[in-house]
Amino acid sequence: MYEVVFSNKAEQQLKKLEREIQNRIISCLERARIRPEAHFKKLVGEEAYSLRVGHYRIISDIERKKLTILVLKIGPRKKVYKK
Predict the structure, then answer these.
(1) What is the tens place of the pLDDT at every residue in 7-62?
(2) How far is Cα 75 from Cα 18, in angstroms, rounded to an integer?
(3) What angle is formed at CA 21 by the lines to CA 3 and CA 16, rounded to 5 degrees?
(4) Which domains does the chain have, with CATH numbers?
(5) First CA to last CA across the chain, in angstroms?
(6) Which residues, other chains included, contact 47 with Cβ-Cβ below 8 Å and sequence gap of 6+?
């Protein structure tokens, strides 16, 4: 089973969201821990992956050798993909 690790930025973004949305995001990440490739979608032209949770997206890096899902960004679809 994979371990979920939040970056400092992602942790701050998660704390700013409403409690209900936080719970949905955490439960989706818990489900994705078993087989992340079934839940995450590879982003075109990048090394990152995206997980859809309603209108929100979780941008992550999956390290298969270490069995780690590193959450990089969390936010609404319109804003999360912008650099």
Answers:
(1) 999 999 999 999 999 999 999 999 999 999 999 999 999 999 999 999 999 999 99
(2) 12
(3) 90
(4) 3-78 (3.30.2310.20)
(5) 31
(6) 61
